[in-house]
Amino acid sequence: VDEAQFAFTLSAPTNLVYQLERSVDAVNWKTFQVLSNFTGEQRIFDTFSNPVAPVQLYRAVSTNQPSAAN
Protein backbone atom coordinates (compact mmCIF):
# COMPACT_ATOMS: atom_id res chain seq x y z
CA VAL A 1 0.00 0.00 0.00
CA ASP A 2 1.52 3.33 -0.97
CA GLU A 3 0.84 6.60 0.83
CA ALA A 4 -1.82 7.63 -1.71
CA GLN A 5 -4.11 4.72 -0.84
CA PHE A 6 -5.73 3.29 2.24
CA ALA A 7 -6.33 -0.39 2.98
CA PHE A 8 -8.50 -2.14 5.55
CA THR A 9 -10.17 -5.50 6.10
CA LEU A 10 -13.95 -5.89 6.10
CA SER A 11 -15.08 -8.66 8.46
CA ALA A 12 -18.81 -9.19 8.10
CA PRO A 13 -21.46 -11.87 7.56
CA THR A 14 -21.00 -13.82 4.33
CA ASN A 15 -23.09 -13.89 1.17
CA LEU A 16 -24.36 -10.32 1.41
CA VAL A 17 -23.66 -7.24 -0.69
CA TYR A 18 -22.04 -4.25 1.04
CA GLN A 19 -21.68 -0.61 0.03
CA LEU A 20 -18.34 0.79 1.16
CA GLU A 21 -18.57 4.48 1.93
CA ARG A 22 -16.18 7.28 2.91
CA SER A 23 -16.70 10.70 4.52
CA VAL A 24 -14.63 13.61 5.77
CA ASP A 25 -17.30 14.87 8.19
CA ALA A 26 -19.39 11.82 9.29
CA VAL A 27 -22.47 13.50 7.81
CA ASN A 28 -22.03 13.27 4.03
CA TRP A 29 -21.16 9.74 2.91
CA LYS A 30 -20.16 8.72 -0.64
CA THR A 31 -20.13 5.14 -1.92
CA PHE A 32 -16.76 4.24 -3.43
CA GLN A 33 -17.23 0.51 -3.89
CA VAL A 34 -19.94 -2.16 -3.83
CA LEU A 35 -18.89 -5.73 -3.17
CA SER A 36 -20.18 -9.21 -2.47
CA ASN A 37 -18.69 -10.73 0.68
CA PHE A 38 -18.41 -14.44 -0.07
CA THR A 39 -15.70 -15.34 2.46
CA GLY A 40 -16.59 -13.21 5.50
CA GLU A 41 -13.37 -11.24 5.21
CA GLN A 42 -12.35 -8.94 2.34
CA ARG A 43 -9.26 -6.77 1.95
CA ILE A 44 -10.30 -3.33 0.65
CA PHE A 45 -8.04 -0.80 -1.08
CA ASP A 46 -9.16 2.80 -1.51
CA THR A 47 -6.89 4.15 -4.23
CA PHE A 48 -8.79 7.44 -4.45
CA SER A 49 -8.56 8.45 -0.81
CA ASN A 50 -7.99 12.16 -0.18
CA PRO A 51 -4.43 12.57 1.15
CA VAL A 52 -5.02 16.21 2.18
CA ALA A 53 -8.19 15.55 4.20
CA PRO A 54 -7.44 15.86 7.92
CA VAL A 55 -9.78 12.91 8.62
CA GLN A 56 -11.35 10.24 6.44
CA LEU A 57 -13.96 7.91 7.86
CA TYR A 58 -15.05 4.60 6.37
CA ARG A 59 -18.06 2.38 6.86
CA ALA A 60 -19.63 -0.70 5.28
CA VAL A 61 -23.39 -0.73 4.87
CA SER A 62 -25.21 -3.98 4.14
CA THR A 63 -27.71 -3.70 1.30
CA ASN A 64 -29.48 -6.78 2.75
CA GLN A 65 -29.25 -8.27 -0.75
CA PRO A 66 -27.79 -11.76 -1.13
CA SER A 67 -24.56 -12.06 -3.08
CA ALA A 68 -24.80 -13.44 -6.58
CA ALA A 69 -23.28 -16.90 -7.08
CA ASN A 70 -19.56 -16.97 -7.82
- Tell me the structural class: mainly beta
| Helix content bin | under 10%
Percent of residues in beta strands: over 45%
Task: Give, in order, the helices and strands.
Answer: EEEEE
* Rounded Rg: 13 Å
Distance between the termini: 27 Å
Helix segment tally: 0
Q: Please outline the major beta sheet.
A: 3 strands, antiparallel
Average pLDDT over all residues: 86
> Largest beta sheet: what is the strand line-up?
3-2-5
What's the count of strands? 5
Q: Which residues form runs of ≥5 with pLDDT under 50?
A: none
Specify the overall morphology. Answer: globular
In short:
The chain is mostly beta strands and 70 residues long. The protein is built from no helices and 5 strands.
Describe the protein.
The chain has 70 residues and is mostly beta strands. It is 0% helix and 54% strand. It has a three-stranded antiparallel β-sheet, with no helix packed on it. It is globular. The model has no long low-confidence stretch (mean pLDDT 86).
